[in-house]
Amino acid sequence: MITAVGPARACAEIDLSAYAANVRSLKARIGGAGLMCVVKADAYGHGAIEIARTARRAGADWLGVAFVDEAIELRDEGIDGPLLAWLLNEHDDLVAAIENDIDLSVSSLEQLQWVRAAAEEAGMPLRVHIELDTGLSRAGAAPESWSALFAAVRGIEVVSIWTHLACADEPGHPSIDAQKAEYERALAMAAEHGVVPRMRHMANSAAALTRSDLHYDLVRVGMASYGVSPMNDNAEQFGLQRVMTVKAEVALVREVPAGTGVSYGHRYVTGQPTRLALLPLGYADGLPRAGANSAEVSIGARRFRAAGSICMDQFVIDVEDLDVVAGDTAIVFGQDGPSAEEWATACGTIGYEMTTRMGSRLARRFVGGA
Description:
Helix content is 29%, strand content 25%. By secondary structure, the protein is of the alpha/beta class. The strands form five sheets. Strands 9-8-7-6-5-4-3-10 form an eight-stranded parallel β-sheet. Strand 4 (62-67), helix 4 (68-76) and strand 5 form a beta-alpha-beta unit.
């Protein structure tokens, strides 16, 4: 299958076969635990609808998103099965969520009341997931509120009690074991209140790959399923395949003498007579400006660094003596080129940001299938 949206000057090619293989590989790695594929933020820039369908076909037990409207969009596209949204707002259409069989997570008594009222309005049974803060200090019920929250949900169907790790992408970080201990304390407290969830989960992509003791009943995988290592190293060591490949057609090639300043600020100056190739994508498409003079692209079997500033719509590479012509394909990152992790390292960021920031102006081309 090949579908495309937008112009052909550049694209993000999404390999659905690679994604399906990653889902199956991760499912095998976590043994008897269930697998939640996280498809928030347009599936980390990969296209939520196609990725969600592929995840289901490949065996994902759950899908997860941040926001209610993301979940409703999936339902509107006919994607069924267990689906969790975990960042609620009192202005969300929680009634529509419940009517569409979307599971909702709460982090406070106030959010519990929103969901309770929505379930009553929808005439549907109340069920909730409970997110706890065990050390991330972000979303999740704070420890001092746990007892009251557990008391309030007694008698309600609690699908899961879960938490999120702060430093799982730094294997061996002491906070990981500290959060595990705090989570176990919370589960014991819940049991004392007569609250026993159907599922327990705390492992994200990094813990899925490095901490089998944290797999519990369900593992949430995001970045790993897209073939990018959450540790910003080589995902292939975990048997994962790159899913997104960003490509661009060379728009222009020109010869310049030594001493030529290139792009804004002349942050790159040619050291000898050479040839410059222009690639028609830039920071408006999602490439970080921080990649100047450091991030690499591939043409054929050779790599070339971005020469000077990455502009809004374009950037330049110095192709030296390579016989490059307009229309040739450059691999910015992905299969047969630099990895998203390499670009992230060059730009001082993480692989998550590299794929997620690829903008809507960049065409998406879906290939392969489950």
